[in-house]
Design goal:
The complex is a heterodimer of chains A (193) and B (105).
Chain A (H helix, E strand, L loop, with lengths): L2 H11 L5 H20 L4 H7 L3 H19 L3 H18 L3 H40 L6 H48 L4
Helix pairs in contact in A: 1-2, 1-4, 4-5, 4-7, 5-7, 6-7
Chain B lengths: L2 H18 L2 E2 H11 L7 H10 L3 E6 L7 E6 L1 H27 L3
Helix pairs in contact in B: 1-3, 1-4
Classes of the chains: A mainly alpha (193), B alpha+beta (105).
C-alpha cells in the first residue's frame, strides 16, 4: 500500500475522534512516512511496518481510553470511561462481547448486591438512631434507649465497613479490566511496543 | 520486557532528548531505535500526550526535504519533569545495581 492510500483509510477509521485529534494523528503519520522515505526507505515497506490502517487506528483508540481510565480523578468517571472502553473493545473484536459480557455481568450484579447490603445497613442504622431519639418521648427506659442506640451504631459501622470494602474491590476490578485491555492491545499490535 | 515499564522509560528518553535541543518526530524515532528496540508507532502518541500535558510546544520549520517539519520544544514545566524523572531513574538504577551486586547475580 502507498502512503496516500494508508492515510485515506486511516482517516476513515478515525472518524469517531474529534476533528482536531484526528487531523493531528494524520499529519503526524504522514510526516513519519515522508521522512522515512526521505531517509532512503521503501515506501511500501514503511507503510507495511505500521500495520493495517484498522489495527493502527484500533490500538490508538484503545491507548487513549487506557490513559483516560488511569487518569480519571474519581471512581465515577473511572466507571464512565470503563464503559466507553468496553464499547471500543466490542467494536474492535466482536469476540470480546462473549469474553466481557458474561464475567462482566456476573461481577456487576455481585457488586450491586454488595452495594445494596451496605446501603441498607448504613441507612437502616441512621433511621434506627432517629427512631431511638424520637422514642425517648414515647417513654423508653434508659436500658431500652441504650440497647437501641448501640444496635443502630452497630448497623451504621457494619454498613460503612461494607461500603469501604466495596470501594477497594471496585478499584481492584478496574485494574483487572485494564489488564484485560492491555492484553487486547498486545494482541492487536503483536508483542513489541 | 514489561511493556508499561518500557513505555515509561521511553517517555523519559523522549523528554530528555527534547530538553537537549528541539527535535522532530522522525529524528526522535531514529535516535531512540539506535539503542532500544521500539515499534515506530510508539513515539508519536507519546509526543502528542506530552504536548497536551504542556511539556512541549510545537512549531513548523522548513526542511530541505519537502514540506515543513513539526518540531518539539521543551517548556519550563517539561524541563522540570524531565530533570525529576532522570534523577529518579538514576537513583533507582543505582539501587537495583547495588542489589544485584550484593547478591552476586
Amino acid at each position: 500500500m502507498k502512503k496516500d492510500e494508508f492515510i485515506k483509510q486511516l482517516a476513515e477509521e478515525l472518524k469517531t475522534l474529534s476533528h482536531e485529534e484526528r487531523q493531528e494523528i494524520l499529519n503526524d503519520q504522514e510526516e513519519f512516512i515522508r521522512e522515512a522515505i526521505a531517509s532512503g526507505r521503501n515506501e511500501e515497506e514503511v507503510v507495511k511496518s505500521l500495520g493495517t490502517p484498522k489495527s493502527f487506528a484500533d490500538s490508538l483508540k484503545l491507548e487513549v481510553q487506557v490513559k483516560k481510565i488511569e487518569e480519571a480523578p474519581d471512581l465515577f468517571s473511572k466507571g464512565k470511561e470503563t464503559l466507553k472502553t468496553t464499547w471500543v473493545l466490542f467494536a474492535l473484536m466482536p469476540l470480546n462481547i462473549f469474553l466481557i459480557l458474561v464475567p462482566g455481568i456476573t461481577v456487576l450484579s455481585f457488586l450491586f448486591s454488595w452495594l445494596t447490603v451496605g446501603s441498607v445497613f448504613a441507612i437502616g442504622g441512621v433511621a434506627l438512631i432517629c427512631f431511638t431519639f424520637f422514642s425517648l418521648f414515647l417513654g423508653f427506659t434508659v436500658l431500652q434507649f441504650f440497647a437501641f442506640l448501640f444496635l443502630s451504631i452497630g448497623f451504621i459501622s457494619m454498613g460503612t465497613a461494607t461500603l469501604a470494602l466495596l470501594y477497594k474491590v471496585l478499584e481492584l476490578s478496574f485494574n483487572l479490566f485494564l489488564q484485560y485491555v492491555q492484553w487486547n492491545l498486545r494482541l492487536i499490535k503483536g508483542e513489541k511496543i | 520486557m514489561n511493556t508499561q515499564f518500557k513505555k515509561g522509560v521511553i517517555e523519559m528518553c523522549v523528554l530528555s532528548l527534547v530538553t537537549e535541543k528541539d527535535r522532530y518526530g522522525y529524528e526522535l524515532i531514529e535516535t531512540i531505535s539506535k539503542q532500544i528496540e521500539i515499534s515506530e508507532g510508539t513515539i508519536y502518541p507519546i509526543l502528542r500526550r506530552l504536548s497536551k500535558e504542556g511539556y512541549f510546544e510545537t512549531y513548523l520549520e522548513e526542511s530541505s526535504s519537502g514540506p515543513p517539519r513539526k518540531y518539539y520544544r521543551i517548556t519550563t514545566q517539561g524541563k522540570k519533569a524531565a530533570l525529576e524523572m532522570v534523577k529518579d531513574w538514576k537513583a533507582f538504577a543505582k539501587q537495583v545495581n547495588q542489589v544485584l551486586k550484593s547478591e552476586g547475580v
